[in-house]
From TrEMBL:
<dbReference type="GO" id="GO:0032263">
    <property type="term" value="P:GMP salvage"/>
</dbReference>
<keyword id="KW-0808">Transferase</keyword>
<protein>
    <recommendedName>
        <fullName>Hypoxanthine phosphoribosyltransferase</fullName>
        <ecNumber>2.4.2.8</ecNumber>
    </recommendedName>
</protein>
<comment type="function">
    <text>Purine salvage pathway enzyme that catalyzes the transfer of the ribosyl-5-phosphate group from 5-phospho-alpha-D-ribose 1-diphosphate (PRPP) to the N9 position of the 6-oxopurines hypoxanthine and guanine to form the corresponding ribonucleotides IMP (inosine 5'-monophosphate) and GMP (guanosine 5'-monophosphate), with the release of PPi.</text>
</comment>
<keyword id="KW-0660">Purine salvage</keyword>
<feature type="domain" description="Phosphoribosyltransferase">
    <location>
        <begin position="13"/>
        <end position="159"/>
    </location>
</feature>
<dbReference type="GO" id="GO:0006178">
    <property type="term" value="P:guanine salvage"/>
</dbReference>
<dbReference type="GO" id="GO:0006166">
    <property type="term" value="P:purine ribonucleoside salvage"/>
</dbReference>
<dbReference type="GO" id="GO:0000166">
    <property type="term" value="F:nucleotide binding"/>
</dbReference>
<dbReference type="GO" id="GO:0004422">
    <property type="term" value="F:hypoxanthine phosphoribosyltransferase activity"/>
</dbReference>
<dbReference type="InterPro" id="IPR050408">
    <property type="entry name" value="HGPRT"/>
</dbReference>
<dbReference type="InterPro" id="IPR005904">
    <property type="entry name" value="Hxn_phspho_trans"/>
</dbReference>
<dbReference type="Pfam" id="PF00156">
    <property type="entry name" value="Pribosyltran"/>
</dbReference>
<keyword id="KW-0479">Metal-binding</keyword>
<dbReference type="GO" id="GO:0046100">
    <property type="term" value="P:hypoxanthine metabolic process"/>
</dbReference>
<keyword id="KW-0328">Glycosyltransferase</keyword>
<keyword id="KW-0460">Magnesium</keyword>
Length: 180
């Protein structure tokens, strides 16, 4: 697996430090509140686990599964809801936890969906922000790192359901996905 990585962008230590820093920010933002923290499956699972452990605040946890990549290296442009949350978010503060904001289509879909359901507030925490990939104008409230317009994997991010278990964020060698 490691041989498929062109270069490491962020080490496990750098990710851990970012999670602690983001956890402190989120703790301050939600002091005295009990937000619903919604993890976007599958990519955000590792990041969400580390983030919620770094937050000193009560919270409720839920998950949503959406897809727009369908095994490819670029978004299809269509967001499909695969699994919905189980929590009624009407009048609640919601924190969406994402692995990466790339085109912005998935995030826009989630923001619109939760707003339509009557969330009191909606904020976004993402490990990675890739502004060069943006097709829709959305922003994260809490961001770990800005990444270049390269195909990244690891720490939850995948290519064809592989590489999620790498402990770092790396750039996948183009020859791995070029012939797909």
């Amino acid at each position: 697996m490691n041989n498929d990585i062109l270069k490491v962008l962020y080490s496990k230590e750098e990710i851990d430090n970012a999670c602690k820093s983001l956890g402190n920010e989120i703790s301050k933002t939600y002091a005295g509140k009990t937000p619903v923290v919604v993890g976007v499956l599958k990519g955000a699972i590792f990041f969400m686990t580390d983030i919620v452990r770094a937050v000193d605040s009560y919270m409720q946890i839920d998950f949503i599964d959406v897809s727009s990549y369908h095994g490819a290296t670029e978004s299809s442009g269509t967001v499909e809801l695969l699994q919905d949350i189980n929590t009624n978010i009407t009048g609640r503060d919601v924190l969406i936890v994402e692995d990466i904001v790339d085109t912005g289509r998935t995030l826009k879909f989630l923001l619109d969906t939760f707003a339509d359901r009557g969330a009191k507030s909606i904020k976004v925490c993402t490990l990675l922000d890739k502004p060069a990939g943006r097709k829709v104008d959305v922003k994260s409230d809490f961001t770990g790192f800005k990444v270049p317009n390269e195909f990244v994997v690891g720490y939850g991010l995948d290519y064809d359901e592989k590489y999620r278990n790498l402990p770092y964020i790396g750039v996948l060698k183009p020859e791995i996905y070029a012939n797909k």
